[in-house]
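Something for you to look into today, if you have time. Could you write out one complete protein record for me, on any chain you like? The space below this message is yours for that.
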Amino acid sequence: MIILAVESSCDETAVAVVKDGRTILSDAIASQADMHAIYGGVVPEIASRKHIEAISGLAEQALEQAGVTRGDIDAVAVTYAPGLIGALLVGVNFAKAAAFGLGVPIIPVHHVRGHIAANYIAHPDLEPPFVCLCVSGGNTMIVDVRGYTDMDILGATRDDAAGECFDKAARVLGIGYPGGAPMDRLAQGGDDRRYELPRAHVADAPLDMSFSGLKTAVVNLVHNARQKGEELDLPGLAASFGAAVSDTLVPRTMEAAKRCGYGKIAVAGGVAANSRIRADLEQACRQSGDKLYLPPLSLCGDNGAMIGCQGYYEYLAGTRGDMALNACATREIRLG
């Protein structure tokens, strides 16, 4: 089965062609990161307009790279939630038009389910059930993946996503946007105990997380140092920050895995590219005996291939959209 897949939930426009849910035939991506960098974050109106400009050409590019024609497409999958509503609407409306014109079904896909599915592409042996840490700029949660379309949240952030905190920390340090990669590079060789940063705990919800206090602590630390004319150890601060995020994510993930007892842990989302988090998870899984599935860096960020992969399993489960399909800024993962 060949699926044309569309992703436009934030600031990457992506169109891919995926075969049978596990094979990428093409994955065309147009990033807007450089454009939004001058603002220190995504400007929704600009993102929506750039999606409109890019999406049609990307679809043509994806078909050409895959070596398929319009007549070869069996279905169109699209991210419909969650995300920036204007950005999502561009992808949803393009996908509806494509499905209508091709006379094929349209498959709505939850963005976080798509990130989880990126692991199926990277690891052909991976099948549910497993526990997945989903961590990105907009979402941070620990998911019980009982089946390809049967999922539930075990724990989640109560406020900011981990990726958002990386972005805000990078912005206050003036090292660029998106913040994950420059923070990771800056942390290399830094002393992760140089600065004492908070690790929040949520009363009566041991698997839930909170990152707003960590974000505020870093912003205040930097502002206070500048006001006093004090020099900061930037590698040490970046390393301390990365350690605080990892110390929040990894133990909760391991506890969730212990409770579920599947023996398998996957990681998904843009922050899954962070070297400290990856290393800490690898070490924790060596100690626990759980098998760890890490996506390659190319599949951590937003891409169309992951939507095509999850779209295949949604199709098998009977999920279908119609011409009334709408975008949703928020949507629980258990609802698809």
Remarks:
- The CA atoms of residues 69 and 116 lie 28 Å apart.
- DSSP finds ten helices and ten strands in the chain.
- The chain has two domains: 2-115+301-335, 128-298.
- The beta strands are 2-7, 12-19, 23-31, 75-81, 106-110, 130-135, 140-145, 151-156, 264-268, 291-293.
